[in-house]
Amino acid sequence: MRRFVPQLFVFGLAFFAFEAFAEDIDIKVGHSRLDPSEASISAGDTVAFHSEDEMPGGHSIVADDGSFKSPALAKGDSWSHTFSELGAHDFHIKEHPGAKGTITVK
Fold it and tell me: Is the whole-model pTM more than 0.85?
């Protein structure tokens, strides 16, 4: 049991160190716009999408590959997604398909 306790302690420190370095990114969502439309983050970082404009039915953020989708966001609503998979994650606003963005996880 003695050998298990130090290993558990080290694992716990590593977990909290990872959480301490995680970063939050904010993306503003509006009519046909994302600000910023591109961001580079580390695995484990969270991106928050904030709807700033009125839209009947709300704005929905959708991954091009279907890996994530927000609920409809009314003006003032936010939705967050934590990215763990490395690579480029392309997304768009469902109601404005021309409003595209990319989150690159390094």
Answer: no
